[in-house]
Fold this protein.
Amino acid sequence: MATTATAGRFVSGDNPRSGLKGRQRMMEIAAENEIEIRGLVAGFLADLGRSPSPADRIAAEVIASTAVRARRLRANGRDDSKERRELAKLMRMWPPSSQPRPEQPPAEL
């Protein structure tokens, strides 16, 4: 079915969500994003091959949320180049715990 303009709004007969109000749809999208982010985080952490540290968990969530945001922007026909650049930078630093830590002198008692 074609999309038609009605009183300044677009209504599509093919979309079952077309009757949802904006706020309700925003909450749905947020829930969908959260499910996708959790799946990516689980995959990242599983690939570590060790028990994840708190830094690993935070980094995995940041990377996953950036990836999901880039996908959503691209799916909506918007420019996602900023997010893709940030994602590439973040992925070069993954996993954070494997990065060499600076040498620290032994603590004196």
Observations:
- The two ends are 77 Å apart (CA to CA).
- The longest strand covers residues 3-6.
- Helices lie at 22-46, 54-75, 81-92.
- Strands lie at 3-6, 9-12.
